[in-house]
Amino acid sequence: MRTRPTTTAALRPRRFAVLSLHTSPLDQPGSGDAGGLNVYVSAVAHELAKRGVASEIFTRAVSSDLPPVVETEPGVVVRHLTAGPYETLPKEELPSTLCSFTAGVLRAEAAQNPGYYDAVHSHYWLSGQVGFVAAERWAVPHLHSAHTLAKVKNAAVAEGDTAEPRAREVGEQQVLDSADRVLANTRQEAAQLHDLYGTDRQQVAVVPPGVDLEVFRPGEASGMRTRLGVPPDGVLLLFVGRLQPLKGPDVLLRAVADLLARRPELRRTLTVAVCGGPSHSSPRWLPELATGLGLTDVVRFLPPVGREGLVDLYRAADLVAVPSSNESFGLVAVEAQACGTPVIATAVGGLRTSVADGTSGLLVPGHAVPTWSDALERVIMDAGLRRGLARGAVAHAAQFGWDATAEGVLTAARAAMADRAVAVA
Predict the structure, then answer these.
(1) CA separation for the pair 159, 311 (Å, rounded)
(2) 409 shares its domain with 334
(3) Cβ neighbours of residue 141 under 8 Å, at least 6 residues apart?
(4) FRET label pair with 420: which of 11, 49, 141, 384, CA 20 to 30 Å apart?
(5) Are the beta carbons of 355 and 324 closer than 8 angstroms?
(6) Closest CA relative to residue 114, chosen from 8, 15, 12, 11
(7) What is d(CA 351, CA 332) in angstroms, rounded to the nearest whole number?
């Protein structure tokens, strides 16, 4: 293991090695395994670059056509490492790529002057396995963001989903035990880290994710409602996310079917837009469910879209549904609220923080179809309630900005660097 200087200058991070093995920040969120983690990595790197702190983001190359190095902006570089076959692999096969990915990370550092990276920030447990090896080799702090936790997911497995394997629980424990700092999205996640994994509370920093408040804000929907065929007096209900059981789009469709059976007059005015790509073994799973429920005239399936398209969708919607079985935070919920659109979400995980129940939206206990259809009916049928929640949504989202997230990451890194300096003094 290398030794690093302990001068004051060494306690000012200049460059992070950011590890995101299983998904690239360049991927389109909402498809495959790309989602909030991708947005987080990109947004924090951008904010750090504005502060003069560089980020080199390591991810696995899924195509031989990808350039080895991509500079997305000054101070932000994405490095595509060859680790396993040039193809997208399911997560259960990714542990086999850990050795080659780790070697690629270590080689990149070895080509630079000693002390090139001041800290490692790993995302998800697979990257964490690489992170604690690299951090020990370079004698720098290791910050880890879990994003999701196996023990939490296994306590509430969505119908049609599979439990996380024991190997992941063991791997997570190894990462959490070795990390200098673990970044939790919410206080609830911090408590779960302590209660389920025994993580020392002093090693956990609560750093909520954010939203780009300059992009996601109220405004005109640029004709999106017309393009989706929403009548002038209609209500647009929106789901955004990967089409997998964990995210609960099936819960939403079943609740809509129940609502229409109860209030058939809504069929003329209600439109449900489902925006996202499948990360399920059966890509036709959700459209087939919509057909079976008799919702083909109501539901519009849309492919994943970029930020500008998302803003249009959020602004066009009267209500956004987030029926996930678990969310460490709930980025979609905050983005929607920042655009002035109230949210109905499951009362689980970070959604209890990202949605202010009764103020910016409604939190629904569990996934029972009647409970969800009741919540939908309450908001859809009461335009005054929707307007009040919309005002509260903008105010609630305003407290979540990526600048605060970046400052939280920097503060955690400085504290970890200071701890190491004391330890070697």
Answers:
(1) 30
(2) no
(3) 119, 120, 135, 180, 181, 413, 416, 417, 419, 420
(4) 49
(5) no
(6) 15
(7) 10
Question: Cβ distance 297 to 327 under 8 Å?
Answer: no
Pair (312, 355) in one structural domain: yes
pLDDT digits (tens, 9 = 90+) for 345-381: 999 989 999 999 999 999 999 999 999 999 999 999 9
Q: Where are the alpha helices (DSSP H) in 93-160?
A: 98-110, 124-138, 150-154
Tokens 């789901």 belong to residue: 239
| Three-state secondary structure call for residue 105 | helix
Query: pLDDT tens-digit profile of 126-141?
Result: 999 999 999 999 999 9
Are residue 357 and residue 377 in the same domain, yes or no?
A: yes
Side chain identity at 119, as an amino acid letter?
Answer: A
Q: Which residues of 148-158 are buried (b: 16+ CB within 10 A; e: fewer)?
A: bbbbbbbebeb
- Domain containing 143 equals 8-210+402-424
In a domain, 166, yes or no: yes
Based on the fold, state whether residues 63 and 50 are members of the same structural domain. yes
Q: How far apart are CA 93 and CA 74, in angstroms?
A: 34
The phi and psi torsions of 284 (rounded to 5 degrees) equal -95, 5
51 and 98, same domain (yes or no): yes
| Residue 356 falls inside a structural domain | yes
pLDDT at 32: 57
Q: Is residue 265 part of a domain?
A: yes
Count of structural domains, the chain: 2
Burial of 17 (0-12, 13-18, 19+ CB in 10 A): buried
The predicted model scores a pTM of 0.85
3-state secondary structure of 59: strand
pLDDT at 2 over 70: no
User: Which amino acid appears at position 36 of this protein?
Assistant: G
What are 47-56's pLDDT values in tens digits? 999 999 999 9
Question: How far apart are the C-alpha atoms of 66 and 79, rounded to whole Å?
Answer: 10
Are the C-beta atoms of 181 and 412 separated by less than 8 Å?
Answer: yes
User: Terminus-to-terminus CA distance in the chain, angstroms?
Assistant: 16
CATH number, domain containing residue 330: 3.40.50.2000
**Cα gap 286→295, rounded to integer Å:** 11
